[in-house]
Write a structure and sequence with these properties.
alpha/beta; 8-stranded mixed beta sheet; 8 strands; globular; Pol/histidinol_Pase-like
Length: 241
């Protein structure tokens, strides 16, 4: 299986990443990608860019060389109501939106029911396209409910390669992601493989996520980002237009 657009990456604008837009795009093109989504951390993440950064992304070209670019955001899910940290109008103006739970923004570890409600309520927003790294055992949901709701709402669930890297700070990611894939297979829920690259060399790194998909015997037809056009055809925000 070949991934042709990375749906989760960060530039120096996120505050703890290490390359510019042009450097990330150049690396993506050199790796043979058709597209690259740049999804900077939203404002509640310490050290990242502010509201005006996202409001002004319309000025940035959506093509560099032969590479097509999507400019979006990795939103922070703030509570069990699925509240996120950019205005709806701003999120709708972007090309793609990932929503994730991060400790600095979500706060203390909540119970499984509360975490499940947080993800479900985020997925019910028609401007959130992807749930990012829902594999973290510190904030683990009910994966059966997660996969079923993602299928019902047209939300993509992310297999995050960075989460699966040995020695990472998220908990029980491999086992959780494997359970999620089995639930996705049961319901026909689509996933996307995101590198979560914070440095250019890590773009479209699927070393661990592809190993996981093989163990789950996960069907390629349920992977959304095997081509740029395929991803665009299944993004929730495209379906509502």
């Amino acid at each position: 299986m070949e991934i042709k657009i990375d749906t989760h990456t960060h530039t120096i604008a996120s505050g703890h990443a290490y390359n510019t837009i042009r450097e990330m795009a150049s690396m993506a093109e050199s790796k043979g990608l058709e597209g690259l989504a740049i999804t900077e951390h939203a404002p509640k993440m310490p050290g990242t860019c502010g509201l005006y950064y996202f409001q002004n992304l319309k000025v940035v070209p959506r093509k560099l060389g032969n590479l097509r670019l999507l400019f979006g955001v990795e939103l922070n899910i703030l509570d069990e109501n699925g509240t996120v940290d950019l205005p709806e109008e701003t999120i709708r103006s972007l090309d793609i939106a990932v929503a994730s739970i991060h400790p600095p923004c979500y706060g203390k570890t909540s119970g499984r029911e509360e975490n499940t409600r947080a993800y479900v309520n985020a997925m019910r927003k028609d401007y959130i396209d992807i749930i990012g790294h829902p594999d973290d055992g510190r904030y683990g949901p009910d994966y059966d409910i997660l996969a079923r709701t993602a299928r019902e709402t047209g939300t993509l669930l992310e297999i995050n390669n960075s989460s699966l890297r040995p020695g990472g700070f998220r908990e029980n990611t491999y086992g959780n992601a494997l359970e999620m894939l089995r639930c996705c297979k049961k319901y026909g829920t689509m996933v996307t493989l995101g590198s979560d690259a914070h440095v250019d060399v890590d773009i479209v790194n699927t070393e661990y996520s592809e190993r996981l998909l093989a163990e789950a015997d996960f069907p390629e037809e349920l992977v959304a980002n095997t081509s740029f056009d395929r991803l665009m055809s299944v993004l929730k925000r495209r379906a509502r237009k």
